[in-house]
Design goal:
The chain is an alpha+beta fold. The protein has eleven helices and ten strands. Helix content is about 50%, strand content about 15%. The chain is globular and about 80 Å long. The chain binds flavin-adenine dinucleotide (FAD).
């Protein structure tokens, strides 16, 4: 068993970290207050091969392992978890297209997806269905030319901003087997967006409803086979859970680094506050939890790379553990900064706000426990 990163993995992490520190970190607060990420950033990210991190070489992707991809998200989220998480969603969609889209479709769209000239959103949630995603109601009626879509998707990261939408829609009966995946390009007649949601965190990402009103798409925008869309959507989620956990991890590492520095400089009662043993113990607890989260996450990624039978269980366990650990660490970091932690200039309060949603999306942390318990019961039956 070897827990060390390879030279290549270290180089991937360093490249992503350097890019984030130069091109994202200095602007993260500005983008947050503007409520958007400049579109010009994405082709630069694409040049690094991050538009299709684990898309196969055959499709022109970087063909990295899931473990390698976690390093990219951990490193980028050290600059801004909101930007890193947005890239994670694009990559989840890109992998779905790589795995299931027809050769014709891949030839048509993949070059722009990989270069990030086409930014993708993932549309599963609806106003009436989140955790119970298979209850979705957006309808795609088959016509002579293709499909006509009617319905609404809720909470869509990149709604009204992205260039294309990978959408789970109902083509058949109720339940998961009646769901298909379709690709809807921005500008398609009948596609519109709700107003921008006001959110606690992830403020640089526009979030909006995606609405279909007799929205007509050609038949060759069906991804894979009819009736398999729910399976495709769920297959993307194991990796998505690793990515979002990595975003918590990187942000928590940044918060801890800032806290160590602050505590060495801040004086109280005649000494720097890092000399109080009670606070040293808090630092030690944060470090222990962070390192445990990192090892657990990388093990889950390794399991997914190996195709291990318990990979989904480990991805769910890691998502629950790492996102909660990340939130605890950034919250403790805020506390150790005293009143200054509450001020935007110190860089901690944004992380507290940004990480909170990681416990809610890509499957809530309650649903992660449902998955873990289901696996445990199956293993013991
Ligand atoms: C900022 C943001 C961005 C998002 N981006 C996207 C996106 O890009 N694309 C997309 O498709 N979705 C997106 N979502 C939606 C997100 O995936 C859902 O919010 C999430 O799946 C939860 O669904 P819900 O909000 O409907 O909550 P509900 O499913 O209604 O859950 C409410 C509560 O009940 C609990 N619960 C539900 N069922 C069970 C159960 N069986 N056992 C125990 N507890 C249960 C939940 O854990 C939760 O605490 C985003 C959400 C947010 C907040």
């Amino acid at each position: 068993m070897d827990f060390a990163l390879t030279e290549e993995q270290t180089a991937i992490f360093d490249m992503a970290h350097a890019f984030g520190q130069e091109n994202i970190a200095p602007f993260a607060r500005q983008w947050e207050s503007e409520g958007t990420i400049p579109k010009e950033l994405w082709p630069q990210v694409g040049e690094l091969g991050f538009g299709g991190l684990y898309v196969s070489e055959d499709s022109g992707g970087s063909a990295l392992t899931r473990l390698d991809a976690t390093l990219v998200f951990e490193a980028l989220s050290m600059a801004c978890p909101s930007v890193a998480a947005f890239l994670s969603i694009h990559n989840m969609c890109a992998k779905m297209l790589d795995s299931f889209a027809s050769d014709e479709m891949k030839a048509r769209i993949m070059p722009d997806v990989l270069s990030l000239n086409t930014v993708l959103s993932y549309c599963l949630t609806e106003p009436g269905s989140g955790s119970d995603a298979a209850a979705l109601k957006t309808r795609a009626e088959k016509t002579d030319q293709g499909y006509t879509l009617n319905g609404n998707k809720a909470f869509i990261s990149g709604g009204g901003y992205s260039d294309a939408y990978v959408c789970m829609v109902r083509t058949g009966d109720d339940g998961p087997k009646g769901i298909s995946t379709v690709y809807v390009e921005d500008g398609t007649a009948g596609l519109s967006f709700g107003g921008l949601e006001e959110k606690m965190g992830w403020k640089s990402q526009p979030t909006a409803q995606v609405q279909f009103d007799d929205c007509k798409i050609p038949s060759n925008n069906l991804v894979g086979e009819e009736g398999k869309g729910f399976k495709y959507a769920m297959m993307g989620l194991d990796g998505g859970r690793l990515n979002i956990s990595s975003c918590s991890l990187g942000a928590a590492q940044t918060a801890l680094n800032l806290t160590m520095k602050y505590m060495s400089e801040r004086k109280a009662f005649g000494q720097s506050i890092d000399q109080f043993q009670g606070l040293q113990f808090r630092l030690a607890d944060m470090e222990i939890e962070l390192q445990a989260a990192r090892v657990f996450l990388r093990q889950a990624a390794w399991k997914l790379d190996q195709g291990a039978p318990d990979a989904s269980k480990h991805c769910a366990m890691a998502k629950k553990f790492v996102t909660e650990a990340g939130s605890k660490i950034v919250d403790q970091s805020l506390q150790l900064h005293g009143g200054y932690g509450y001020l935007a200039d110190y860089g901690i309060e944004k992380l507290v706000r940004d990480l909170r949603v990681h416990q809610i999306l890509e499957g809530t942390n309650e649903i992660m426990r449902v998955i873990v318990a289901r696996h445990m019961l199956a293993e013991h039956s």
